[in-house]
Specification:
Bound molecules: phosphoenolpyruvate, magnesium ion
Strand content: 15-25%
Distance between the termini: 57 Å
Shape: globular
Strand order of the largest sheet: 7-16-15-9-12-13-14-8
Structural class: alpha/beta
Largest sheet: 8 strands, mixed
Length: 762
């Protein structure tokens, strides 16, 4: 049976139109099990009914016509109970309801199972037989297994708009909401613009060529042209985007300069293939290798390689890069692509861009980073939404909720317009108060720092509003290279960072690789990377890496003195002892090296991240060893709740508002205060309006966040009192579940006029 099951699912998934796929499904199941009838009903939540969508056995004229109410008949009962129903004689069941149109009078035995995806009943799958009999356990198990797999196909079809609730004539007029993930907060409205590449590696058909010299010359010429095009695009956005985004263009240049790529392509040309086909062959192999990597950051690089190669291909073939259709530059546009890339954004920077939709990608991808830096709302990961559905259509992008509305009705558009205007008013008001101190209404002073590195946008304006850098994630420069950066390279980088504001403290975290951040040149293969060789665990096992980094930091700090060093993923006191020993060793080495220069080497403050739950119970011991603490609420949440922070399947369970996380945060700050150790929160929670209120109430007063959130958080701080916040905290600490906490926090934000910070509108 397992083979028929696999075959059925595979066949069904290949049929693009849902109705046809379901028709095929019912016939295949009927044949595989040998029953008299198989049917599928799909739920329509708007109309509160199940619609017969396909059948092999009932009257085909009833398809798309017979609707069974959610609380009606056996189909409704299966939906309500969310479990299979196996009965000898359907017609004698008390919930049986007769629908004459389906013509099922001849059937008695009945087996139905709900089709469920992420706790939502999408439909019901039924088998019927003339004979009175109970279906076997095997048959029941087969149907249940099949329905779990079919659920995904239905979800995909729903996203693609292939549901027949909308009749063909109305498809274009139909307003459709598609959900993705928020990539960059904000609201945007415009016409969907999908840039089309005239050529692409994927569709290029391989050809042979005997003229090797000519093909090599064509390839080299194309690479040169592409190099200058990339340079021009990079110059176009220079100064408008943060340095880590500008670095994407450097990756392109590195790839273009890579000798190995050129050798491989030219090797293939020498084997008798033309330049374009050789490029296709080599690059497709590379792309596959990158896509197969477990690290999301490295997977993202496949997009860059593909984009760049399409550009080279266009130059080999002598066509334009993206097909620049005539654009109305005054029209508000939403850039839509399978994968939005940084050069693509640079290319269309002359358009009136109001938002970005990237069908693939996550809030971690470069497109999202760039969108945030450019202040453009973005929605990512609209899996399976076909580009044709969005191209040329009016689109509304809600970067708060991660939703896109296609072809919105006039009334929805008007409502959205009001929200956009309100949003602008709100950010103007926030900006007006940017220079004011971050003090609560009851005179409680709060210090706000920024997080820099991984995805933090070093926007100068916000940097000046912060009191320094609370977390500099040093792993990025390590990830962008093909080998460990040398001490000198690191020193230059850190110096630049420390000099960016020599009067403000800059907290540099030692290398936190491992987990979801492996280095391409230092592969780690582990069953559970988040529970494995990460952060200080890894660097203590490799003192040569740790010492070089510390020496670079200490040397960068000479004459400045604003460096603080922070250790990630600390689990035990011995790790702090060992790290401090190595830091002292590096300090003595560098001191000796500069002894005849007359310069003085300062010993920086040393702190630890509190992000592994074990340290909640070791604060008194740690307090004796370090100068400061910083709470990593992202990992603390992940480890306390045992929820992988990157796993989309359990993302609903990852919530820093979980009462257990709040209790841990409270205990941490109480203990830190008792032992007089300064403490900061540097996880994402500190950058959330609700989060900061709860943290303030607990007794935290230093926060470090994405620079993008800093002014918004200052606005929140200036709008609340610690006294009121404490009342809210008392109330949420007694909640059972995170959603209750969120509800109360959001209600509170609404009550003090800050609701506009967590949803569209003011
Ligand atoms: C954290 O875990 O909260 C944190 C700030 O570190 P990262 O997100 O880099 O793991
Ligand atoms: Mg962390």
């Amino acid at each position: 049976m397992i083979t028929s099951l696999k075959r059925i699912v595979q066949e069904v998934s290949k049929i693009p139109v849902l109705e046809e796929a379901l028709k095929h499904l019912t016939s295949s199941i009927k044949g595989a099990i040998g029953v008299d009838s198989c049917s599928v009903y799909l739920a329509n939540y708007e109309k509160q009914h199940f619609m017969l969508m396909a059948t092999d056995g009932l009257d085909s004229g009833a398809v798309g016509k017979v609707a069974i109410g959610f609380s009606e008949g056996l189909i409704g009962l299966i939906g309500q109970r969310e479990e299979p129903l196996n009965i000898l004689d359907a017609q004698s069941h008390p919930r049986y309801k007769h629908y004459p149109e389906v013509k099922e009078e001849k059937y008695h035995a009945f087996l139905g199972t709900p089709i469920i995806h992420q706790r939502k009943v999408l439909g019901v799958l039924t088998l019927q037989q003339k004979k009175k009999r109970r279906f076997s356990e095997d048959e029941e198990a087969f149907l249940v297994t099949l329905s779990t797999q079919i659920a995904l196909e239905i979800v995909h079809a729903e996203t693609r708009g292939f549901l027949s609730f909308v009749d063909d004539n109305n498809r274009d007029k139909w307003q459709r909401k598609i959900s993705g993930v928020p990539g960059s907060a904000g609201l945007g409205m415009g016409i969907g613009f999908v840039p089309h590449f005239k050529v692409s590696l994927a569709s290029h058909v391989a050809k042979r060529s005997a003229n090797k010299e000519l093909e090599i010359a064509r390839y080299r010429e194309a690479v040169n042209i592409t190099r200058s095009q990339v340079e021009e695009l990079s110059n176009r956005v220079e100064g408008q985007v943060p340095s880590d985004v500008q670095a994407i263009f450097q990756i392109y240049s590195h790839l273009l300069d890579a000798n190995s790529l050129g050798h491989e392509v030219e090797g293939r040309i020498k084997d008798g293939w033309d330049a374009a086909s050789s490029l296709k062959y080599i690059i497709e192999n590379y792309i596959q290798q990158f896509r197969n990597m477990s690290d999301p950051y490295m997977q993202e690089r496949a997009v860059d390689i593909e984009d760049l190669s399409n550009r080279i291909l266009a130059n080999i073939l002598g066509t334009d890069s993206p097909d620049q259709r005539p654009l109305d530059v005054n029209q508000n546009a939403i850039l839509v692509a399978e994968e939005v890339t940084a050069p693509m954004l640079a290319e269309f920077s002359t358009m009136k861009l109001c938002g970005i939709i990237s069908v693939r990608g996550s809030s971690n991808s470069h497109a999202a980073i760039l969108a945030r830096a450019m202040g453009l709302p973005a929605v990512m990961g609209l899996s399976d939404a076909p580009l044709s559905l969005l191209d040329g259509k009016k689109l509304l992008v809600d970067g708060y909720s991660g939703e896109v509305i296609v072809s919105p009705s006039e009334s929805v558009r008007q409502e959205f317009n009001i929200l956009v205007t309100e949003e602008q008013e709100l950010s103007d008001r926030i900006l007006e108060k940017a220079h004011l101190p971050s003090v609560t209404q009851d005179d409680y002073t709060v210090s706000l720092f920024i997080n820099a590195g991984l995805s933090a946008e070093m926007e100068n304006t916000n940097f000046t509003h912060g009191e320094g850098v609370g977390l500099y994630r040093t792993e990025v420069p390590f990830m962008l290279r093909e080998r460990f950066p040398s001490e000198q390279e690191q020193m230059t980088l850190y110096r630049e960072m420390l000099e960016s504001d020599p009067h403000k403290p800059i907290t540099m975290r030692t290398l936190d690789v491992g987990g979801d951040k492996p280095l391409p040149y230092f592969p780690i293969s582990e069953e559970n990377p988040f529970l494995g060789w990460r952060g200080v665990r890894l660097t203590l096992d490799h003192p040569e890496i740790f010492l070089v980094q510390i020496r670079a930091m200490l040397r960068a700090n000479i004459g400045l003195g604003n460096l603080q060093i922070m250790l990630p993923m600390v689990t035990s006191v011995s790790e702090v002892n060992e790290s401090k020993r190595l830091i002292k060793q590096a300090y003595h080495e560098v001191s000796e090296e500069i002894s005849d220069t007359g310069k003085i080497l300062e010993m920086p403050k040393i702190g630890v991240m509190l992000e592994v739950p074990a340290v909640i119970y070791q604060i008194p011991q740690l307090a004796k060893k370090v100068d400061f603490f910083s709470v990593g609420s992202n990992d603390l949440t992940q480890y306390l709740l045992a929820v992988d922070r990157n796993n989309a399947r359990v993302s609903g369970l990852y919530d820093s508002y979980h009462p257990a996380v709040l209790a841990a945060l409270l205990s941490i700050v109480e203990q830190a205060n008792e032992h007089n150790v300064p403490i900061t929160v540097c996880g994402e929670l500190a950058g959330e309006p609700g989060g900061i209120i709860l943290l303030l109430a607990m007794g935290y007063s230093k926060f470090s966040m994405n620079s993008h959130n800093l002014l918004k958080i200052k606005w929140v701080v200036r709008s609340v009192t610690v006294k009121q916040s404490k009342l809210l905290l008392d109330s949420v600490l007694s909640c059972d579940d995170p959603w209750e906490v969120r509800e109360q926090v959001n209600q509170y934000l609404e009550s003090i006029g800050l609701g506009g910070l967590v949803r569209a509108g003011i």
